[in-house]
Amino acid sequence: MRLCRFSIGDVVSWGMVEGDLVYALETSPFVSGAHAIKKTGVYRLCDVKLLAPCVPSKIVAIGLNYRAHAAEFNKPLPEEPMLFMKPSTAVIGPGEEIIYPAHMSRRVDYEGELAIVIGSRAKDVPVEEAVGHILGYSCFNDVTARDLQGKDVQYTRAKGFDTFAPIGPWIETEFNPLDVRIQTRLNCELKQDTSTADMIFNVFQLVSFVSRVMTLLPGDCIATGTPSGVGKLKPGDEVEVSIAGIGALVNRVAALRQS
Is the pTM for the entire model greater than 0.85? Predict the structure, then answer.
């Protein structure tokens, strides 16, 4: 099942995507549960604007969670998941612009990732019960000001600019995340191409670990780390993160508009 948020004019709705149609839902899947949703209308997918498929209270991101990416940066494999946060104000949806903050950064990178979307409140969850707290999965781009990441002690500034958390195009609920292909293309050129089997900590381990640090709420996201092959973005670029079984998240990069 593919769950989405979409707008027609000023009206925002939750929806379910089936082929080239979007069915409006009576309530949020976080309220009703993915298996108890009721359809209230139908639209052509081409007639609606897809939005970020969830409204997270927080985004918990994982650093160095692919073996090849750790090797790419000459880093030892972590003994535990490395956590950092991205603010909810960084979230944008498919087709929205990533704004290049040239007033503060000279090196902004893409990082294609698999996102976990939490479906129910999770606190101190055992690994074997983690699946029950996951609504589904989406594509994610952990946009990073790489020069600031190297300069600062913590990642907040480098990861936290507005528009630095594209997610979408929807949430796939019927999905096995343990060995799927994740790819990133920059201006149609393949840059990242790896299986999630290269993760150091799998999605269920991550949900359990994070839930022992902080309570995860419905709609929260865990960005599970990026494979090797990260690289530079510039205004005018188009970046696509695609995951087999989910779909593709496409965003363009735009220059910061001066007010």
Answer: yes
